[in-house]
Amino acid sequence: MTALSVHGLHKRYGRVPVLNGVDLDVARGSVTAILGPSGCGKTTLLRIVAGFDRADAGTVTLNGTDVSSGRTVLPPDKRAIGYVAQEGALFPHLDVQANITFGLPYLTTGRRQRRDRAAALLELVSLDPSLARRYPHQLSGGQQQRVALARALARKPSLILLDEPFSSLDAALREATRTAVVATLKAENISTLLVTHDQAEALSMADHIAVMTDGRFTQTGPPQQLYARPATLGTALLLGPASTLDGTVDNGRASCPLGALPLTRHCPDGDATVVIRPEQLHLSDAGTTADTGATVIGCEFFGADTVVTVRIAGGATIRARAAGTTPYHPGRPVAVTVHGPVHAYPRQGPGSRPDDVPPADGPGSR
Ligand SMILES: Nc1ncnc2c1ncn2[C@@H]1O[C@H](COP(=O)(O)OP(=O)(O)OP(=O)(O)O)[C@@H](O)[C@H]1O
């Protein structure tokens, strides 16, 4: 069952086209992440779905009812949509309870009902109900984001829109808040559209990812599928860190300075850009640099793993990830092996540059 359907959405600001025919379906109860570089049109799409802005053409359908189509444009408060903005945007002069119950109709909801509803929602977003009398400035950033979510949930929306809701939180808080928010959305069976340019957020939170480039979706699918088979070089780089090497594809294998490597997806014969993830690169001892032509030039320790930068034969650099610490420090010669198939994209033509979109009938188009 589809909670949200968007078809043929176009929007321009002045002469500048921002959305160029956006199509998207969000399944009921699922989390769909829109992942894309800054300025590609993510927030514009969210604002049109919420009813804050008007599309120039196209339709928005919520649970089978058109809310934006031709001359019919339902105002935001008639759409049963919750919206959580980047900074949470709580009312600073209202306490937590008043913030959460702000959108509830006064005449139909008594004081006691409002207090009970606020307490229940606080519990739902894993916050202590004793916070109800605090003001936003007395809360941490993560607590404020959860109150913002509780406020969006108060009116029992069928769809919730999250616009980079965790970007202002530090890494540890972001992860904890993300987990709590996903658990809440799943528990309430709320359909969710999440806008982010954080690939880890999209991969870990979403059931479905839609990659946006230049105002249209260039590839959609489950996170595992997109990560395994990105349709363009741009999508491959958007989905996670990677080393890129010049190579040549011949009959399903890419020859590059690290060997003749099998491919994850078809790439036509000829000059290509080869994309290798850090977890695919393994380092081992080498006698001297002359043996392998590879030398460690940098080492970054992240706690759970270490990223080692290596200059390989021909002068290109690659980044390998090793669990825990590593014995390979700058200046040390190493041997580099690649595990598993790699992505390769033609160096000329559609999809060859990082910001390219695939051709209309290409593998990533819908
Ligand atoms: N009200 C407006 N008037 C004119 N141009 C606008 C307006 N709102 C957005 N834009 C432009 O439309 C383009 C898309 O903006 P949008 O905010 O949708 O991008 P985004 O993908 O959400 O970016 P970010 O990730 O940086 O938030 C940008 O070039 C932006 O400058």
In short:
It comes from Dactylosporangium siamense. GO terms for molecular function: ABC-type ferric iron transporter activity; ABC-type quaternary ammonium compound transporting activity; ATP binding; ATP hydrolysis activity. This protein is of the alpha+beta class.
Characterise this structure.
The chain starts with a strand and ends in a 20-residue tail after the last strand. The chain is built from 9 helices and 21 strands. Helix 3 crosses helix 4 (141-153) and helix 4 (141-153) runs parallel beside helix 5 (171-187). With 366 residues, the protein is an alpha+beta fold. The protein is 22% helix and 35% strand. Adenosine-5'-triphosphate is lined by residues 13, 18, 36, 38-44, 197. The site of adenosine-5'-triphosphate (ATP) has 11 residues, from helix 1.
Total helices: the number is 9
**Sheet with most strands: strand arrangement:** 7-8-9-3-10-11
The largest sheet, given as strand count, sense and whether it forms a barrel, is: 6 strands, mixed
Structural class designation: alpha+beta
**CATH top-level class of the largest domain:** Alpha Beta
Mean of residue pLDDT values:
87
- Helix-residue proportion: 10-25%
In one word, what is the shape? globular
The number of domains is: 2
What ligands does this structure carry? adenosine-5'-triphosphate
Parts with pLDDT < 50 across at least 5 consecutive residues: 357-366
Order of helices and strands: EEEHEEEEHHHEHEHEEHHEEEEEHEEEEE
Q: How is the CATH topology of the largest domain named?
A: Rossmann fold
Number of strands: 21
What's the alpha carbon Rg, rounded to whole Å?
A: 24 Å
What is the CATH architecture annotation of the largest domain?
3-Layer(aba) Sandwich
N-C termini distance? 19 Å
Pfam families: ABC_tran (PF00005), TOBE_2 (PF08402)
Keywords: ATP-binding, Cell membrane, Ion transport, Iron, Iron transport, Membrane, Nucleotide-binding, Transport
Enzyme class: translocase
Region (Disordered): 341-366
